[in-house]
Amino acid sequence: MSKVLNKSEAERAAKYLTAADAVLAPIIAAAGPCTIRQHQNYYWELIDGIIGQQMSIKAAAAIERRFKELFGTETPQPEAIVEKSIDDLRSVGLSRAKASYIQDLAQHIIDGKLKFDNFESMSNDEIIQELVAVKGIGEWTAHMFLMFCMARTDILAVGDLGVRNAVKKLYGFDNIPTPDEVKLIAEQNNWHPYETAACWYLWKSSDNSPG
């Protein structure tokens, strides 16, 4: 079972990756231990993930703020979301597709098709399988959930453009590396079991973290 990033585990990750990867070492020295921590707001993290798909951090944050304002609460409940029309949701800047994805997620929770109760005891792959059954949730959103909500230590966000751009810059690629090439860099530099922290340092290297 994957470990969870807490203060002591983050400090171990920093020491381990400093010794394992000379490229990451100066970034780690500047950034300090990874600050990702586990929280239990699983439902909102998934909405946040859908909003942020293929979008800059700044743009996603603006839409998220307007989304909350539309409902007048920090955490709009599933029942309130399905009561809104697609056009209501689009009014905050969401695409039609993302508005429908968020409603589908809310409906899955209302219907009991998606239950978070057992996630703590499930493997990463089992959780990903549960999540991608929801329309609009793919591997990237599932990876962000496992990293920033559950704080699992060993998530390699191979599909994240920020990670891939940082790998290109730091490891001498001529072009943006493919997900398989990111996996190879992780293997060659012995990031396991701290892939999550390694990704966080990659984001820090370009100040482009999604969370």
Please give a structural write-up:
- With 211 residues, the chain is an all-alpha fold.
- The protein is 59% helix and 0% strand.
- It contains twelve helices and no strands.
- It starts with 6 loop residues before the first helix and ends in a 5-residue tail after the last helix.
- The model has no long low-confidence stretch (mean pLDDT 94).
> Main β-sheet, in a few words?
none
Low-confidence stretches: none
Counting DSSP E segments of at least 2 residues, the number of strands comes to: 0
Portion of residues in beta strands equals under 5%
Radius of gyration: 18 Å
**Number of DSSP helical runs:** 12
Taking the alpha carbons of the first and last residues, their distance comes to 24 Å
Q: By helix and strand content, what is the structural category?
A: mainly alpha
Mean pLDDT: 94
- What order do the helices and strands follow? HHHHHHHHHHHH
**Helical amount:** 55-70%
Query: What is the 3D shape?
Result: globular
Brief sketch in words of this structure:
This protein is mainly alpha-helical.
Topology:
Blueprint: H1 7-20, H2 25-31, H3 42-52, H4 57-71, H5 78-83, H6 86-90, H7 96-111, H8 124-131, H9 139-148, H10 161-171, H11 179-188, H12 195-206
Structural key phrases:
211 residues, mainly alpha, 12 helices, globular
